[in-house]
Write a structure and sequence with these properties.
Elements lengths: L3 E4 L2 E4 L3 E2 L16 E4 H12 L5 E5 L17 E6 L6 H11 L6 E6 L3 H9 L4 E3 L6 H4 L20 H12 L1
Parallel strand pairs: 3-4, 4-5, 5-6, 6-7, 7-8
Antiparallel strand pairs: 1-2, 1-8
């Protein structure tokens, strides 16, 4: 059975093959079709990968600096950020930096130990694609995007905090 991914708030088959740790062996020849490569592999084989004429994506480990791919963002169909443990929050900051500081507009995927409870917050930071941990049901997780009807803080998906919206609404109502 093909692996499933949430993209555009729909569950679909995942066409991307990840190589390197944590999902595969980066020493093997690249498979046909869309591939996600680790940052180190991208750095070492940039020209070869760019010449493939097939969709390419890069995945970042928690300690990887998003500035390392800032100049190459236009080459990637997907940038994926690995969450080795659900308690490791560094990927949230990486996503926010990619969206705000570096202006990345392509698919931004969270993968690894990602569960339903995180999806709402991951989306707030700029993620739009999610590959859940194997023991989570992506169909059941879709409901998490509507867990909260009001967001107090500003974030990537809505930078204006609620108190500012209320202040503006109060001036308009007068």
């Amino acid at each position: 059975m093909p692996e499933r991914v949430i993209r555009g708030r729909r569950v679909e088959n995942d066409v991307w093959q990840a190589i390197g740790q944590p999902h595969g062996d980066a020493t093997q020849p690249l498979p046909q079709g869309p591939v996600l490569v680790p940052l180190a592999y991208w750095r070492e084989h940039r020209d070869l990968l760019a010449a493939r004429r097939q969709p390419i994506g890069v995945w970042l480990a928690p300690a990887d600096d998003p500035a390392a791919i800032a100049d190459d963002l236009g080459r990637f169909s997907v940038v994926a950020i690995h969450f080795p443990k659900f308690t490791d929050g560094r990927g949230y900051s990486t996503a926010a930096l990619l969206r705000t500081r570096y202006g990345y507009r392509g698919e931004l995927r969270a993968f690894g130990d990602v569960g339903r409870d995180q999806l709402f917050y991951l989306a707030r930071c700029g993620f739009d694609s999610f590959k859940l941990a194997p023991h989570h049901d992506p169909e059941a997780a879709l409901a998490s995007f509507t867990d909260f009807s009001v967001r107090y803080q500003g974030s990537v998906d809505d930078p204006v905090p609620l108190f500012r919206k209320r202040a503006v609404a109060g001036r308009i109502a007068r």
